[in-house]
Amino acid sequence: MNDRQELWSKIDGAKQRLIELSDRVWGMPEVCYTELRSAAEHKAELLHQGFRVKEGLAGIPTSLVGEIGESGPVIAFLGEYDALPGLSQEAGIAEHKPVEAGGHGHGCGHNLLGSGAMLAAVGLAAFLKEKGITARVRYYGCPAEEGGAAKAFMVREGAFDDVDVAISWHPYSFWEVAPPLSLANTRADFIFKGRASHAAATPHLGRSALDAVELMSVGVNYMREHMPSDARVHSAILDAGGIAPNVVQANARVRYSIRAMELQDMLELVQRVHKIAQGAALMTETSVEMKIVSAVSNTLGNKPLEQALYNAMDELGVPSFDDGDRAFARKIQDTLSDADIAAVYRAIGMPATDEPLATFLTPQDTNRKPLIGSTDIGDVSWVVPTVQVHAPTVAIGTPFHTWQVVTQGKMPAAHKAMVHAAKAMAATGLAAITDPILMESAKAALSEQTARTPYVSPLNADVMPPLDMSKG
Fold it and tell me: Is pLDDT above 90 for 371?
């Protein structure tokens, strides 16, 4: 048995407790910055496993870090545990059936993500202790990835300053090294204030904040023709000014998400959107305030770590799914459209198959057409060499942020993929510790990228974690 196999046996020995942790967190879905019970569950498990635990990083009550080891290189495994609003769903059924009407649900699989990352940390720490290898293993419990940018705040406050390598993963349809692609993103609220009046008797005395919101939307839509084709701007009205049409709306609030492939392009778009808001206020004789809610950077890749991770994933092979796993996955696929399934194959640049679950490791050199969102791990990747696994926790084609992800979140197939992801992450961490050339190459790759464009946090110093953002 070689070192990797011994390491993986440690993970197999610890996996049941972490699968149970994942299932408990699935059953207590908590959204951005409200993850009190989920964080407490993670803390309790870290303590049980012998980690020293520190809470409240960057002033965020639901963040934490656990560490084993006194000296040596620091390998960090990054976990998450926030859920999404409105995605309540029973587990293990192929039909939409909420547990609680309007309730939350783990529609991005973060119950698995946090537990899988912790499993990697637990397994690696146990292996290092047995072999007498000097290193520090950390598990970072990171809340509020879904729009709250917790990691970006943690980076700004120095939580990763002494980390040598950061490793994470995410649920997905396929088994692959996650492409280092994400959009830089700012969420900003535009708060308009006008003057109330009787909409029939004295409309000329009113100044409508809602009119300003609507005119801002028109302006942003005209801007779309003149912004980079891979940029994205979308919005949600948080306060339309009331429910009475006979009252001119004196207050209105709209939240914009402004994204671009590069951080600087995103920052420029934010300023353009702000100018449009100011123009809407000018046209309606209202006032406007822009308030940054959160912001994240795009993700930087790291070729040396990606190759090391690929090697580990290749040796592992895909998870061993059984007939029961495949049968349920087919039932889930029956709820999807052909376009859903075709989209994920286009994303990885591979021809479609009839398999309901992943059967191969995606090659690194395919002609991808990736489906790109935003994530706060982007900011970590600017200050620490970072790499991520994609593991097949769902039926091929399952769109994320849907009830279909929630219902698969406690299934045996998801558990198998989570354990596989932990093994790949732990093996990559071990390689970084035991291979000085890999560690040096990973750091050099990051230094080369940031020498050209140094990291600047997208969060100004006066922007604090939006701990109440889930209240609207």
Answer: no
Residues 35 and 14: beta-carbon distance below 8 Å: no
Strands of the sheet containing 232-239, edge to edge, are 232-239, 251-260, 184-193, 287-296
Given a cut of 90, whether residue 260 has pLDDT beyond it is yes
User: pLDDT at residue 115 above 70?
Assistant: yes
Phi-psi region of 258 (alpha: psi -120 to 50; beta: other; left: phi over 0): beta
Q: What is the pLDDT of residues 378-423, one digit of tens each?
A: 999 999 999 999 999 999 999 999 999 999 999 999 999 999 999 9
State the pLDDT at residue 471.
78
- Whether the Cβ atoms of residue 167 and residue 428 lie closer than 8 Å to each other: yes
Neighbouring C-beta atoms of residue 317, cutoff 10 Å = 12
pLDDT at residue 472, rounded to an integer? 60
| pLDDT for residue 307 | 98
> What are the extents of the domains in the chain?
3-182+299-452, 184-296
Q: For residue 251, what are its two tokens?
A: 């207050």
Distances (CA, A) of 112 to 27, 249, 393: 12, 44, 9
- The span from the CA of 209 to the CA of 435, in Å, is 60
Q: Topology of 3-182+299-452 in CATH?
A: Aminopeptidase (3.40.630)
370: confidence class by pLDDT, cuts 50, 70, 90: confident
**Helix or strand or coil: residue 64?**
strand
Q: What string of DSSP letters covers 357-407? A: S--SBPPTTS---------THHHHHHHS-EEEEEEE-S-TTPPSSSHHHHH
Residue 183: φ, ψ to 5°? -90, 135
The mean pLDDT value for 345-365 works out to 96
Among left, alpha and beta (phi > 0; psi -120 to 50; other), residue 424 is alpha
For residue 11, CA distances in Å to 116, 151, 384, 427, 434 come to 10, 26, 25, 11, 19
The answer to whether 84 and 146 are in contact (CB under 8 A) is yes
CA dist., res. 351 & res. 371, Å (int): 16
Helices (H), 132-240: 150-156, 209-223
Report CA 200 to chain centroid distance, whole Å: 48
| pLDDT at position 225 over 80 | yes
Question: Average pLDDT of 111-126?
Answer: 98
CA distance linking residue 313 with residue 79, whole number of Å: 19
CATH 2.30.42.10 fits 184-296, yes or no: no
H/E segment holding residue 327: helix 323-333
**Distance, CA of 112 to CA of 171 (rounded, Å):** 8
Q: CA geometry: angle at 43 spanning 148 and 171, to 5°?
A: 55
Whole-angstrom distance, CA of residue 215 vs CA of residue 115 = 45
pLDDT at residue 1 is higher than 80: no
